[in-house]
Amino acid sequence: MNSRAFSATSSDEKRKNTSLKRLDAAGRPLYNAAAILTGDGSNNVEIEGSAAGPVPFAMNEVLSRGKRMVVRVVLLQAGCAALVASVFLVLKGSSPALAALVGGLIVAAGSAVMGWRAFKPGIAGGATLTTAMYAGVALKWLWFALAMYLAIARLKLDAAPLLIGIVVTQLGYWVGLVRLK
Question: What is 3-29 written as a DSSP string?
Answer without folding.
Answer: HHHHHHHHHHHHHHHTT-EE---SSS-
